[in-house]
Amino acid sequence: MTNTEKIFTFIDGYAESAQSLYLEAIIEVCNKWINGEETPKLSEDVTKEEIRRGVQLAVLKGMKQNAQPHHQMTPDSIGLLISHIAEKLVGEEQDITLFDPAVGTGNLLYTVMNAIGKDVTASAVEIDELLVRLSAVISELLEQPVRFLVQDALRPLLVDPVDITISDLPVGYYPDDDNGSNYEVMPVEGHAYAHHLFIEQSISHTKPGGYGIFVVPANLFETEQTVKLQPFLKKKTIIRAIIQLPSTLFQNKAHEKSILILQKPFLEEKTSPDVLLAQVPDMKDKQAMARFLQEIDIWAAEA
Predict the structure, then answer these.
(1) The domain over range 76-302 is classified in CATH as 3.20.110.10
(2) Domain boundaries, the chain
(3) How far is it, in rounded angstroms, from Cα 204 to Cα 283?
(4) What stretch of H or E contains 53?
(5) What are the pLDDT digits (tens) for 176-225?
């Protein structure tokens, strides 16, 4: 078995025999692993990515069993693409700071942190306490320094501006109109789209010159609330790329997603570079994906 398979088997075996809920049991056995009480038999050269994948396979099984419909894990195919983009945008810079305002179990965040690899730290927000506990124990296993805030991410945050904000944005209406009224993208009537508010909140916690990389609905600019979102983006950001994800990744057209890449401009910045408009090919087509990633690399080198 691979290290990833051994890790999943180790966690799954404990969780299936435990008296607690599967997700709670994952936290228990990961803490035992961290403390050296029980450990999987792995090769000496086990990588952080193997650990992440093994644990997340167990988390995915647990989320299906415990019915967490509002917390869909970001698929690895999307996470690995975003991590490639983030790694290229970082280049040779050191001491990179990240922020995920809707971290969930941390799968996307840890994929990016593992890819960047060098002196990277992160802040993360999640309102679900169980998911925070899961994410926190995984960060310990991976030895990735993450500071967690358990709260509504659209409330004021004690998070310093970061180099890159990444997030698979929660989609839907935000019910708290009083708090929503603090945002520029709040519509005149009705509830605001939560994903619009998350974009504004994220940009406010990104350094000038820093990037926001978001998984967004494919129809982001085709809804009635675009009349609020577009002026905000024009005033406070530079749209660097809109990358359409393959429709084969989603069950139906209504759930299709894109990757939106924004840059927070410096105050003196006046020009706007061309926007990269791209479509990810069939991810099973290795040659097409290689050409696509080469296009991304060229774009990132010029960013």
Answers:
(1) no
(2) 3-65, 76-302
(3) 33
(4) helix 48-65
(5) 999 999 999 999 999 999 999 999 999 999 999 999 999 999 999 999 99
